[in-house]
Specification:
By secondary structure, the protein is mainly alpha-helical. Helices cover 56% and strands 10% of the residues. The protein has a two-stranded antiparallel ribbon. A hairpin with a 2-residue loop joins β1 and β2. The radius of gyration is 16 Å and the shape is globular. InterPro entries: DUF433 (IPR007367), Homeodomain-like_sf (IPR009057), WH-like_DNA-bd_sf (IPR036388).
């Protein structure tokens, strides 16, 4: 087993995450590639080893079909439960 997959596990909602943490591979990818944060910054903010951040990114890109499936499931769940969300403009003090 490679070092990359040794630290990435799927115990939490069937989504790959860092072993012993609730931080998902998808979350770390979003922070770096979509929000433009530096991997060191993300590691520091979440008390992670920067190598684990890079492991998560590697896992994401080494498993594109798995990650697309996870994102589709996530979008479907959000859409299925959208009726339960409250619009902040509808909330009054």
């Amino acid at each position: 087993m490679s070092q990359v997959t040794k630290r990435i596990v799927q115990e939490l909602h069937d989504e790959p995450h860092l072993e012993g943490r609730r931080i998902t591979v998808r979350f770390l990818k979003e922070q770096i590639e979509e929000r433009g944060l530096d991997p060191r910054t993300v590691a520091d903010r979440h008390d992670l080893d920067v190598a684990d951040v890079y492991r998560a990114l590697t896992y994401y890109h080494d498993h594109p079909e798995e990650m697309r499936t996870i994102e589709r499931r996530r979008r479907s769940a959000i859409e299925a439960h959208a009726h339960l969300a409250t619009d902040p403009d509808d909330v009054r003090d």
